[in-house]
Amino acid sequence: MTVVCYRFSIVNLSKAESLYSVGMRPLMYSTKDAQLNQVGWKRCGENITYFRNDSQNGEDEANISFTLSFNLDFPYDNDLVFLAHCYPYTYSDLQDYLIRLQNHPVKSMYSKLRLLCRSLAGNNVYYLTVTAPSLGDVPRKKKAIVITARVHPGETPSSWMMKGFMDFLTGDSDQAKVRHLTPSIKS
Known about the structure:
By secondary structure, the protein is of the alpha+beta class. The chain starts with a strand and ends in a 6-residue tail after the last helix. It has helices at about 30-35, 90-105, 105-110, 155-170, 175-180; strands spanning about 5-15, 25-30, 40-45, 45-50, 65-75, 80-85, 110-120, 125-130. The strands form 3 sheets. A 3-stranded antiparallel sheet has the order 1-5-4, with no helix packed on it. The longest helix has 14 residues, at about 155-170. The chain folds into 2 domains: about 5-85, no CATH class; about 90-180, no CATH class. Its cofactor is Zn(2+). It comes from Timema podura.
C-alpha cells in the first residue's frame, strides 16, 4: 500500500467568503475504507487555502473569482473515492426519513406530512407540521413558525440541519416534550 498525496485546486468560485478559511474541511468517502474498516464519509484534507484569484486586465469587482486548494492523501491502491463539500443527503434519504417519522407510533401523533407541490422534475415537495394535537373536535388557532430548508438541490447542509431540528422537536428531551404540551411557543 502506497500513500499518494495530491493537491486539488477548485477554481473560479464566486463567493468572497468561505468556511474553508475558518477550518472547514472537504469530505471523502473511500470504498476500500468502508469495506475494510466500516468508515463512511469523513472530513479530510490538509493545507487548505481559499484565496482570491489575480484580477485579469480590466476585470471588475463583480467578476472576481476565488480558488479552494487542499492536499489529500489516498492510502489505498485501486480505490474508488468520492469527494464532497458536505455530507450527502439525497432526495431518497429525505423520503425515507419522512416515512419513518410518519410511521412512528408516537412521533406521528405530533407531526403531519402534506404534499405542498411537485418540483419541475416531478418530485414531491412536502411540508411538515409539528404541533400538539388539538383537544376535542374544535380546531384551535395556533401561532406558527415556518422554517424552510434546501430551497435549491445542492443545499444538503440545510437538509442535515432540518433533520436534526425535526429529530429534536419530535424527540424525548424534556424541552421537546414541553413544546408538545403547550398551546403556543412562548419567547
